[in-house]
Amino acid sequence: MLDLLFNSLITLLVVIDPVGVAATFVVLTREMTFQERRRTAVRGVLLAGAILYAFAFMGNGFLLALGIGLAAFRIAGGILLFFLAIEMILARPAGHRTTPLEQAEAGEREDISVFPLAIPLIAGPGAITSTVLLMGHVWHSPWLAAGRLVTVALALAITLLTLLLATRLMRLLGVTGTNVVGRVLGIVLAALAVQFVLDGLQGAGFLP
Q1: Cα angle vertex 150, ends 21, 200, to 5°?
Q2: I need a labelling partner for 122 at 20 to 30 A (CA). Which of 49, 54, 70, 77 fits?
Q3: Pseudo-torsion of CA 12, 16, 18, 22, nearest 10°?
Q4: pLDDT per residue over 64-75, tens digit each?
């Protein structure tokens, strides 16, 4: 069980990419004071947590209402995460998770905690997909379900810590160090994405 929970935590951390989010956070909050930056980080992580927990509890019911099986969602989610992994391996900044129009809108706003920090930078498509998939078949085991809900909280707590230390972290790693970390995590995410697809194919009966 501990192995499963550890794997869940790593999956969420890789998908959220706290270092990449921190790099964007530094740029978006460069004109804020330390107190404003801290409030923005806390608010953004709390909002992202609300979104992820909503999908953790209601994601499966939402899929059932749409007539989508978990196997199909695993395959689609795996493909989505694989494209995200390619972006990370190519060292594309986290800001590319938003469109140019979204980035322009974010630059005009004083409060960036909701958009783009909470969504899509933290609770983006990859994180939402991973949360739904991780919670898919665990409700039969209360302890495992509770454990995975705790891993979501841990991933968000680590993300918050990274945001609070963002300026120091970026100064320490630099552009090259940030890209190296992103590439390594991208390779891990690519492997996880392939595993999601294989699990989906197995659940659909295409693999033994």
Answers
A1: 80
A2: 70
A3: -170
A4: 888 888 788 788
